[in-house]
Design brief:
181 residues, alpha+beta, Immunoglobulin-like, 2 domains, 5 helices, 31% strand
Length: 181
Amino acid sequence: MIRMLLWVLGGALLGGIVHLATVLVLPSLATQDAYSRIAPIARVNAVTPLPPPTPESAAIPFMDPAFAISVCRYDLSDGPIKFSVPVSPAYTSVSFYTRSEVAYYAINDRAAGRRVIELDLMTTEQRNDLPGDEEVTAADRLIVESPTVRGLILIKALASEPGLLPIARSTLAAARCVVQQ
């Protein structure tokens, strides 16, 4: 009886180890992640509107059709990015993801408290290279540090009614994601 119990316990332990290893390794082996799906349709360091989702195809899985969505595929190797987007009448959110789809920062229009969400995106090294005696205070300038050089910025504007979707799209058309000079 004890021998059988040890076999069952050993099998469960081995199964748990295999399961955990599989769950941890599979995301790094996936070839159709969000960054790979967006790369053919979005230029680097430019805001690109995503087409409305359909049941057959969507650039990003589980997209909500009530949102107008744009994306900026950024590359910080040429320098920091200056990002800005005007807020829409209903709701606007901006989310930052690494190349491997790890979310590291998000802000919405309520948290920004302004009519335009503006920020500087840079790596830690680029942040350390900023002059220490700048006259600009933290309250005047929002700086987001990216853990990686490449990633995605996902911009969403809510259309509270289907007829307001063109207004949400026009709001996102004014978004900018450019390398600072």
